Amino acid sequence: MALKPNNQAAEDEEIARFLRYLAAERNASPHTLAGYLLDLGQLVTSRWGEDTAPPYAWRSLSDEDARQYLISFSSAGASPATIQRKLASARTFCRFLQRDEIVIDNPFSLLKGPRKPKTLPRVLSVEEIGRFLACPMRDFKEGTMDELSALRDTALFESLYSTGCRISEMTAVRWGAIDFGRGTLVVTGKGSKDRLVILGRPALDALKRLRERMSETDASLAADDADVFLSERRRITSRFAERRMKRYLAEVGLPTDVTPHKLRHSFATHLLDAGADLRSVQEMLGHASLSTTQIYTHVSVERLRDEYAKAHPRA
Hints:
mainly alpha; DNA polymerase, domain 1; hpI Integrase, Chain A; 2 domains
């Protein structure tokens, strides 16, 4: 069984200072801060127990404590990726304590987590993307969905595939961020960094139709400071988008475990398949490191290899 986090960990002075540092100096999102707090709460439980109140004697944290912390996740069957994240969180926290001379040694500095197996991202083909994107308006025409919902979903998924944005970036878009004349959109990505992305003609047309229809319903819904993607007049969530996507995938016989993030993978892979420059794709995706983008070159090579195997007489 995985460690339960100590629910009082946030009250520890050093953990609280660390979280403030992440928010102020690294622009960490609330989601990232919650992840660190969970990891450190589990570290507290591993060393001092689930119900121990702060403050905690961080200087007493030993190399053996660090090893046992990671072993607990391995014993509970946690994935290599999860264990690596727990290690990274604890190592970063202890490095922060070292900087402020709260601790002398970092017991996590020399530990290595399990190797993560290299997996290629699942992508949809161009033909599969086309079938998927046609679903909302087809449902409207068949009378199984209202027009506004169909327009919203079409605009949402067309925009995700057109720009390669993360779902959290797209759900936060407001009308004023879209330049319909230039066909561009400004989104706020990780680290609160803004970047410019390109909207293709189908995405632009879908957004225009959605705005016009929303304006007919209520002019305030189409104002520059209004959220673009709404459900019952509230901004949609990532989970809402995932549920809508599953519905359409099922309708066209595609795997329902494909998430909105796979549209981002498909965007990058299709661009590289067509000869796009790797650094341009990196910029469009908002990756800080080119190495993160390079995984999509492997996807492209795998696709070429598959086509070669099917078509070449001596493959």
